[in-house]
Write a structure and sequence with these properties.
Blueprint lengths: L7 H35 L3 H12 L1 H5 L3 H28 L6 E2 L3 E2 H29 L13 H22 L7 H16 L4 E2 L2 E2 L2 H10 L7 H10 L7 H29 L9
Antiparallel strand pairs: 1-2, 3-4
Family: Belongs to the mitochondrial carrier (TC 2.A.29) family.
Keywords: Membrane, Mitochondrion, Repeat, Transmembrane, Transmembrane helix, Transport
Protein name: Mitochondrial carrier protein
């Protein structure tokens, strides 16, 4: 990572660009996210879930269920992930903590900063996702349940965004100059990294499926480890993967284009060089 002057204006530009990314993701990707959530929480197939949602509520109202929490929370969620990643990179660069190559390939500072970005996102995403999921599956909810699944969300996001920035750093020279291509590619690779089972202390952790099940309210009294074991026994580790990857490709590819354009324009208006970390 090349040193660069960075101040609150640059940080504000990054947070604002992340907010634009978040709003775009909701507008473009919500239909696929709704289907993914229904598939993961109910066990139905993708086609059956799509037909059910449209039959119950129509195309627009049905597929964009849960948009309001994400328009509000998702804006801050993406803003937090990019902003915290940016701040962490600067803090690590200016600190006495040495950077080294993990496995001779990945800079440790990039991984640590990505983890900070993922945690920043999780703080906002936890309750936001709870309300979104309850709306998507048309289930009752209460404010006391808003933090259910937060621990799983934090674990997933730490790995997810860290993987995303690592892939961005490693693959940028090979993916050309298209923000859509490397946004979609790196997002999908990051999802595939955290989606399947990862064995930790002999326990299987399919983060995204379990997060959705915890927040759906359809498994009261069932702990995350128990849901993880059930998902493994039922072969549900990749449940909802297809709509999830379609959403990831279209939403994150388009959102990365918006992020880059907003970052460049705000940098121009502020009289700064456009030196985004992403």
């Amino acid at each position: 990572m090349a040193p660069k002057d960075h101040d609150l204006v640059d940080t504000g530009i990054t947070f604002a660009s992340g907010a634009a990314y978040g709003m775009t993701t909701v507008a473009v990707g919500q239909p696929f996210d709704t289907i993914k959530t229904v598939v993961q929480s109910s066990g139905e197939g993708t086609v059956a879930a799509t037909r059910k949602v449209i039959a119950e509520s129509g195309i627009i109202k049905g597929l964009w269920r849960g948009s309001l929490p994400l328009v509000l929370g998702g804006t801050f969620m993406r803003s937090a992930q990019f902003g915290c990643n940016d701040l962490a990179r600067d803090a690590l660069r200016d600190s006495s903590i040495p950077s080294f190559k993990i496995g001779g390939v990945v800079e440790s500072h990039i991984v640590l900063a990505g983890m900070c970005g993922g945690l920043g996102r999780a703080v906002v995403e936890g309750p936001t996702e709870f309300f979104k999921i309850r709306q998507q599956i048309v289930a009752q909810w209460s404010y006391r349940e808003a933090l259910s699944g937060l621990g799983v969300t934090m674990g997933r996001n730490t790995g997810l965004f860290s993987a995303f920035v690592v892939y961005m750093d490693l693959l940028r020279p090979y993916l050309g100059d298209s923000p859509f291509v490397y946004g979609a590619t790196c997002s999908n690779l990051a999802w595939l990294t955290v989606w399947p089972c990862v064995e930790i202390n002999q326990c299987v952790w399919p983060f995204d499926v379990v997060k959705t099940q915890r927040q759906s309210g359809r498994h009261p009294g069932v702990s995350a480890p128990a849901l993880l074991a059930n998902a493994f026994r039922e072969g549900a580790l990749f449940r909802g993967l297809l709509p999830g990857l379609v959403r990831s490709s279209i939403a994150n590819g388009t959102s990365m284009v918006v992020y880059k354009k907003v970052h460049a324009e705000l940098s121009r208006l502020a009289g700064r060089d456009d030196h985004s970390n992403i």
